[in-house]
Amino acid sequence: MTYQNAQPHGIKPFKPLPRLFGRGALALVIGAYTVYTLGPFLWLATMSVRNTGEISADHYAWPSPFRWEQFRVAWVDSAFDTYFWNSAIVVVTAVAVVTLVGAAAAHALARYRFRGNRIIYGILFSSIIFPPQITLISLYQILVDYNLYNSLTGLTLVYISLQLPLTVYLLEGFFARIPQDLFDAAKMDGYGDIEIFRRIVLPIGMPAIATTLILNFIQLWNEFLFAVVLISDPEKRTLPIGIRAFMGDHFQDIGMIAAGVMISVIPVIIAYAFFSEKLIRGMTAGAVK
Amino acid sequence: MSDMAKHAGTDVEAPARASRAPRTRRFSDPRRASFPVLLVFLVPALAIYFGLTAYPAFRTIYDSFFTIEGMERIPVGFANYVALWQDETFWVAVRNTFIWAFVAPILDVATGLLLALALYAGVPFARFLRIAWFTPVLLSYVVVAILWMWIYNYDWGVVNELLRAMGLGDLARSWLGDPNTALAAVIVTHAWKWAGFNMVVCLAAIHSLPREVLEASELDNCGWGAKLRYMIVPMLKPTLLNLYVLAFIGKMKVFDLVWIMTGGGPLWATETVSTYVYKRAFNWNTFDLGYPSAIAAVWFGVVCAAVILLNKIFKSKDRLEY
């Protein structure tokens, strides 16, 4: 460790860099990793505006001309509009319901003292670790029994149940930190319990609620396993299974697959461009303490 | 994970309640709610939980003692479990999943930590890089799988093109089609998606470390290698272990990526328990839902036991106080 003595004091504004590499090597590694993460995505983007003939000629050429009509074709002719709207309806409904139901339960668990509080919390929370197969096969049978198999309503219900534990867990943690004084004051002013939830907890907890909204939205937008098991009708496919089915039918049509994939990614990327910090916080909410 | 339950709040504020005794009946203890109010808040969540999580879970375990073909249910006792014990494919799937769940998180967490350190060391554009490196976390497994199937493509995939360009064309192969490399190829893809997640969490943890300690080490002329080994890693240990457990849980459940990239093939080289359950329940025309229920029930027990065990092991080590 001879580099220990070579600690110049001139670069104090920067924290010291690993001496074993030096600045140039570090920059190289960082540059390489950036290409590694963003490269595949940019490659996909270029392919989405080229047709399959052009792609086969050279997979890595810059698009010329930019064939934006690829998106129109994918949207209209390859039924990606159906998949997109199915996804949107299911995910938005499920996220709205799970947030409201989860927030109500989280509030009761965080605020009130009653027998069995921690038991209920533990029961709801523990199902976070359940492997999905333990409910998958039975949910399939149950939805068939109740005529909800192959319906967007059934899928929405299942999605609500999938995200409920995480929602309750995250919101309970946040709500518990709201100062009790606020609630005491509200009681003095004659607020009822429901009013307290509606007029104090929801507004004050909004940043936390936004975080869980984002997390739930991304996770459900990307959900594949339950959708593929519970939906069989092509008209009712969500985006992930729609893309997968399209790929199965048109394995060679790389340009069109790329355009379809881009359609599913664009909403997420637009949201990310505007709310990158919020999205990062939302996605890591369970792990950062 | 269970330590997260600590900051639950209700216990912390107990003294506050005691000192604030209700003066009249009307302004009753704000920490208490009448039973109907609790029902209003809790019943929707509990109904969803019991209807769509607890009941299906119990039903799966119950079903594992039957052979179920369509409407027909034949009780078979433990026959499914006996068959499972002798099912070679199941054991291959278990082996693959265990390799993935125990080994791959180390790769994820180490990459995340190193990336976080690189950003912490004060490289330019750190803000942009953090956002860029996080992008794959937001992509769905379907998107990631398709992208990487192209990257691994034999004729024109990036990996083989690079190898050929470097004159190592002999090494070019069908990465997902070769049983020797398929599992590793899928694991690398999974790590590509999740490294950014670990990076962000590590970076947040590094930033919350006490500055005095790190500055003191600088005064002591402590090199980065030593600093990493003796200070940063020990101080971040709770975070790193927590990330390991999270990654472990994720990998015990892994399905989407494998299913789309390889379908568990070639020759069961990437078969995981999740893909095997799916195949037996919905893909092979065996039409029996009892046997896959047995696999799911066994795996449910294994995952729960493994998580509890990991938490126990990691808990028993003393946390570094600072």
Automatic annotation (TrEMBL), chain A:
One of its GO terms (biological process) is transmembrane transport. Keywords: Cell membrane, Membrane, Transmembrane, Transmembrane helix, Transport. This is Sugar ABC transporter permease. CDD domains: TM_PBP2. The chain crosses the membrane at residues 20-43, 83-107, 119-143, 155-175, 196-218, 254-275. Its main location: membrane. Belongs to the binding-protein-dependent transport system permease family. The keyword Transferase does not apply. One of its GO terms (cellular component) is plasma membrane. It is a multi-pass membrane protein. Residues 84-275 form the ABC transmembrane type-1 domain. It is found in: Cell membrane. Gene3D superfamilies: MetI-like.
